[in-house]
Design a protein that fits this description.
The chain is an all-alpha fold and about 240 residues long. The protein contains 10 helices and no strands.
């Protein structure tokens, strides 16, 4: 799996916004990168309000952000994302409802020029925004992510360099990592899909065993055929569950 590189904005080095403009790692940014544009639009308002106005207790700016939050939330409210499991779908709905409630409370406080209340609500509003965005991101499955790293190492490094020793060693590692894909290591979001997930993992083990046989006979042509099938199974798994 390819990972997006962080973007560093050197021209903003001396700007008061530099702390949040130099990286793109928060859930809202990542949701925007996945195509959920309303989160990017909301973040354009949230970032200066949270990182600058709130930090500096600039209440005029905090009050001015309120109607912009209301307008920007309309796009988030209209989103109808598709989810791969019911738990993630429920989490998104619950977080968005709380987010909507806090936008309303914040707007009401701003209309009253209630500095104390606006200052108190901003951290809650920010957290609700990020938590809602996080439910749109890929499921975090460390054991499987480790397996993908090993597959990529074989395909992108060992095989192109005809490093048979590296292929053999990494295949042993792959088998070990497959053994770690058990019901107990499944993330909570995938528990309701436990049976099909474990069935797919079992199929991967069968393919990996064939790869191991190719290693034992030092048949790299055979190996290339089977790892292509294994890679396709991994990609299918990611598409279906992650």
């Amino acid at each position: 799996m390819k990972k997006l590189a962080g973007v560093f904005c050197l021209i903003m080095l001396f700007s008061p916004l530099a702390a949040w403009s130099q990286t793109s790692t928060c859930p809202a940014d990542r949701a925007g990168e996945k195509g959920y544009d309303p989160f990017s639009a909301f973040h354009e308002i949230m970032a200066p309000a949270w990182h600058v106005a709130w930090a500096e207790k600039d209440f005029d700016a905090l009050f001015a952000a309120a109607p912009k939050f209301v307008d920007a939330f309309a796009g988030i409210a209209s989103l109808k994302p598709e989810f791969k499991n019911s738990l993630r779908k429920t989490a998104f709905a619950q977080n968005r409802n709380q987010f909507s409630h806090l936008v309303k409370l914040y707007s009401e406080a701003a209309l009253k020029s209630d500095s104390a209340r606006v200052y108190e609500l901003m951290p809650e509003l920010h957290d609700a925004f990020e938590q809602t965005a996080s439910t749109l991101l890929p499921v975090h499955y460390p054991a499987f992510e480790g397996l993908v790293l090993t597959v990529n190492l074989i395909l992108e490094t060992h095989l192109p360099k005809d490093n048979t020793e590296g292929v053999i060693g990494s295949t042993e590692t792959l088998l070990t990592k497959l053994d770690a894909l058990t019901p107990e290591t499944l993330p909570e979001e995938l528990q309701d899909s436990r049976e099909p997930v474990m069935a797919d993992v079992a199929e991967m083990r069968v393919i990996a065993a064939k790869m191991k046989t190719c290693c034992d006979t030092n048949d790299m042509d055979c190996y290339r055929e089977h790892i292509a099938v294994f890679d396709a199974a991994v990609r299918s798994f990611i598409k279906e569950y992650i």
